[in-house]
Amino acid sequence: MGYSVGQISASAGITVRTLHHYDKSGLLSPTERTPAGYRVYSDADLARLQQILFYRELGFPLDEIATILEDPRANALDHLRARHRVLNEQITKLQRLVEVAEQAMEVQQTGVKLSPDERFEVFGEVTFDLTYATDRQRQWHDREGHQQAMARAATHTKEDWAELMAEGAEWRQRLIAAFEAEEPADGERAMDLAEEHRQGIIRWFTPCPTDMHGRIADDFAADPRAFALLVPPSEQRPGLAAYLRTAVHANAVRQSRPDEA
């Protein structure tokens, strides 16, 4: 049974031009031609093409593929081992590039201009999820508060971040203590903690009116990636994010009443 160039092209997913190139280079010449000069490929030609495409997928150059297929003394296993080694080296190099790209993305999307070692030293368990940073960058990029927060974050030194994180760790312990003591989420103690959190945002990042603080708290309760920026998973308690959200919204009501704020 014979196959036309068009049939081979469609079944193998390669262009007719590629088949012509393989023919011209001698890598894959059709077994037959019609009286009109059209190429006709046999089952054996198709099997050879499958081998060629296999080696091409692994990145072998055409001249090396020709050597493997044509020279009976060529050891295909040796070629594959050598290619395996090259691919692993490329993977290692690409992984390093991925890490560099992720670090650059983190600087752009979180504003934290610290080296990986410095980030680990300062933030510890609190890590930035780049998927969350990307999502919020897309959602909030045109909001003035987000832009101001990013700009302020970019100016923070390692010492600033260390101070910020120390304050946050101490605040978290008091929040957890209030939660475990079953203090009402809309009670004075919880609302004071919520207001303290809002003032921390104002101090370190951007003006934070109560409606903005409410959106942030809603995000904490709805998205574990967001809450993990505030409370590391090892310190979280079931219901703690919702508790904080209630406290934040209760505090917003309190702040709207000057005589009670």
Condensed summary:
The chain is mainly alpha-helical and 261 residues long. It is built from 13 helices and two strands. Helix 5 crosses helix 7 and helix 10 packs across helix 13.
Indicate the topology.
Elements: H1 5-12, H2 16-25, E1 32-33, E2 39-40, H3 43-57, H4 62-70, H5 76-110, H6 116-123, H7 130-140, H8 144-155, H9 158-180, H10 188-204, H11 210-222, H12 224-230, H13 240-255
Antiparallel strand pairs: 1-2
Helix pairs in contact: 3-4, 5-7, 6-9, 9-10, 10-13, 11-12, 11-13
The CATH level-2 architecture of the largest domain is identified as: Orthogonal Bundle
Tell me the strand percentage band: under 5%
**SSE pattern, N- to C-terminal:** HHEEHHHHHHHHHHH
Quaternary state reads: single chain
Residue-averaged pLDDT, rounded?
Answer: 82
Low-confidence stretches: none
Distance between the amino and carboxyl termini? 88 Å
> What count of structural domains?
3
CATH topology of the largest domain: Globin-like
Give the fraction of residues assigned to helices. over 70%
Overall radius of gyration: 31 Å
CATH class of the largest domain: Mainly Alpha
Strand order within the widest sheet? 1-2
Q: Briefly note the structural class of the backbone.
A: mainly alpha
The helix tally amounts to 13
Shape: elongated
Major sheet characteristics: 2 strands, antiparallel
CATH superfamily of the largest domain: Antibiotic binding domain of TipA-like multidrug resistance regulators
